[in-house]
Each structure stands twice: as structure tokens, then as C-alpha cells.
Amino acid sequence: MALSLMATLRREGTDAAGARAGIARRLLHRPTALAGLTLVVLFLMAALAAPWLAPFDPVTQPARRLLPPGARYLLGTDEFGRDVLSRIVFGARVSLEVGIVSVGLALALGGTTGLVAGYRLGWVDGLSGRVVDVLFAFPSVILIIAISGVVGPSLRTAMLAIGLVYAPVFWRVVRAPTLTAVQQPYVESARAVGAGRVRVVLRYIVPNIAAPVIVQATLSFSTAVLSEATLSFLGLGTQPPDPSWGTMLAAGRRFMELAPWVAVYPGLAIALTVLGLNLLGDALRDALDPRLRQA
């Protein structure tokens, strides 16, 4: 009996490994996935290599205000004479940091609670479910602005607010497949051979619910970038003189007729980054969801 159960577990693991091996091949055959991946890679390269890619210091203020794009300043200068290209490149680092920290916080809070709620049910499921219902009753942008306004404007506050507000999304994304995975034969087989709760969760449940979590994390990353830009635009996120796409957009709107490049290029950076992340997230959803896979 024990040998039969172990064979079942090995067969399940082999099937799962084979399914994961084909995901990359399906993903690379999608034009939208390649377009999204290209934009995301460019965004990551700009963020990680900002000190080497930026031609000037992003906070230095030489006496070259509102110069149009040219050979020396490829994207022009802003109202303080700072190089727009350098500020956009360093602003990518802010967006990357916000996305990683806020999505990680949301996944840690919402994902862990949803996993416990779906695996054990009981009072944890009931209490966390009511809290999630209350949070979903308010628009996410309003909650993020309210938290940032109460705690105080800063980049750390923005990351905390975004992470807390997006945690309920991960709670729902994790809880639903956990409820289904708990009832699968491979989980019952693992329990029958004496596997503990922690081993069952980490070895057999988490890998099998990872697909929707990965997709949601990618989509939430784009929303976090947009939310940080919104907070910075309103003066509740990154504070001057630190470069941020949102603060650049807010400052540049005053010069749209005189120097439109000050606002156009940061807005374009936001749009392309969010577009790339959304395209990649949609492609991952199609590749990972067996109901949406094309034959």
C-alpha cells in the first residue's frame, strides 16, 4: 500500500514537471508575450543599470532650463535644468523598488493568510474573509491615498499603503485554489504516508497553486507602479528632489505648451512599463491556465 502511494506521488510530480517544461515554449510563441517581455526587460535594465546608463546626475541643477531634446540632452531638460533622460532612468529604480516591496508585502500578508484559511478553514477563514470583504468595499486608490495622507508622504509610506491595500487580492487568489488542492488525490496520498502539514503545504499545495499567484503578482506589479506614480503626482509618494515618474509628470504639466517633453516622456515611461507588465501577465495567464491553452 505504501509503495503504491509513493508511486502515485512520484507520478504526480513527474506530470507536473512535464507541464512546467512546456510553459516557456508556449510563452515564446505568443507575440504579445514577446512584446511584453521586451518592455519589461528594458524597464529592468534601466532600473538596475541606472548609474551607468544615465548621462548626468538626476538631481544636479545646472543653468540649462527647459532645453529641448538635442545631441547633449537627448530628452531635454526640466524647469530646474535637470536632464530628463537621467531622471527617467533613475525613476525606473523607484518604480522597481515599489513594485517588489509592495507586491512582496501583499503576497506575504494576503497569500499566507489565504493559504492558512484555505487549508484549515475554521475561524481563520471566517475572520480573514470578513476583513477582506470590508477592504474590498472601498476603492483601492482611495484607501492608498488615505493611508498615505494619515501616515505622511514618503516612498516607504507609499510602499506600505500599496502592499496593505493589495493584500486582499492575493488572499482570494490563494484561498480558492488551496480549497481545491486540499481535496486532490496527491494531497490525500501525502497525508496517508505520514507527511506533516508543513510538508504537505510546501511540497504539494504551494507548487500547484503557484500559477495564478504568479499571474496576479505580475499584474499587481503594474498596478503598483501606476499607484506609486499617482501618489507621487499628488505629492504623497516620492518627495523632491528624488526622481519619480509621477513627480516629473506633475511638475511638467505646468509647461505643456512651452516644453511638452518635460511631461510627455515620463508619461510615456509609465504607459510603456504598465503595458509591458500587463501584456506579460496576460500571456502568463494564457500559458499557465490549461483552460486557455491553445492546442
Question: Can you lay out the helices and strands and say which pair or pack?
Answer:
Layout: H1 2-21, H2 23-28, H3 31-48, H4 50-53, H5 84-120, H6 122-136, H7 140-151, H8 155-182, H9 185-192, H10 197-205, H11 210-233, H12 245-252, H13 261-288
Helix pairs in contact: 1-9, 3-5, 3-13, 5-6, 5-8, 5-11, 6-8, 7-8, 8-11, 9-10, 11-12, 11-13, 12-13
Tell me the overall shape.
elongated
Q: How far is it from the N-terminal to the C-terminal residue, by CA? A: 37 Å
**Helix residue percentage:** over 70%
Strand tally: 0
The main pleated sheet reads as: none
Computed over alpha carbons, the radius of gyration is 23 Å
Q: Are there runs of 5+ residues with pLDDT below 50, and where?
A: 12-18
CATH topology: MetI-like fold
How many alpha or pi helices?
A: 13
How would you characterize this protein structure?
- With 295 residues, this protein is mainly alpha-helical.
- It has one domain (2-288): Orthogonal Bundle (MetI-like fold).
- The chain is 74% helix and 0% strand.
- The protein has 13 helices and no strands.
- Helix 1 (2-21) crosses helix 9, helix 6 (122-136) packs across helix 8 and helix 9 runs antiparallel to helix 10.
- The longest helix is centred in the middle third of the chain and has 37 residues, at 84-120.
- The two termini are 37 Å apart.
